[in-house]
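sorry to bug you again but im stuck and you know this stuff better than me. theres a chain ive been looking at and ive put its sequence and its fold in token form underneath. id like you to explain what the token line says about the fold, in plain words if possible. anything you notice is useful, everything is just below.
___
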Amino acid sequence: MLIAGVDEAGRGAVLGPLVLCVFAIDEDASDRLKQMGVKDSKLLSDKERERLADIITHYPHELQIVSAHEITEYMKKKISINEMEAEKIADGLRLLHARVRNIGAVYVDSPDPLPRKFEIRIRKYLKGSAIENIKIISENKADFRYPVVGAASIMAKSTREKEVLAMKKELGDFGAGYPSDEKTIEFIRKNLKTAKLQKYIRHRWETIQRMKTTELKLEEFF
């Protein structure tokens, strides 16, 4: 019997995709991940994360890469980021189950303060599928508690970093892509209207909305 772990990377970014990973391993072999040094990707150096990603990439996993444009479209429809994540997790679980068939339980790092609420969100999108009654363990900070979730975290982060690297080859160095990164914010300010940047911006993010509003006010003033 397999167990699966779910985590994401890029949730809070203003540029680029959000990446979700559903990662599976035989329940009897899950301790092997801990022995390898697998843990939440935030606790690893870039070099160590990529080393582990190369080792564990052969285990069954499913990636959901949600573009900035797609995130903007969800937000236009008033669909929350948590609801969007739940839908994508369900998609990933169904796809992975179709390949491996024997996932008995899934451990999910819940972004909802009430983890049970996030479980209910996911189950809504599993209705009518072969795994609608799968055991879901939804917890806050699951990426710190369960190596299988840490593995999902590593694969999601490694994949997002590759996506970001490809973006930088096209756009130039914009930093980490998060609102806490001054380099990212300055880059967006200077290039807010640049055509090639538009598909990578999460236009409905509050940070971007404030920039656009400020720019409009300055145009009116001058």
In short: Confidence is low (pLDDT under 50) at residues 216-222. The beta strands are 2-9, 18-26, 61-66, 103-109, 135-139. The first strand starts at residue 2 and ends at 9. The first helix runs from residue 31 to 36.
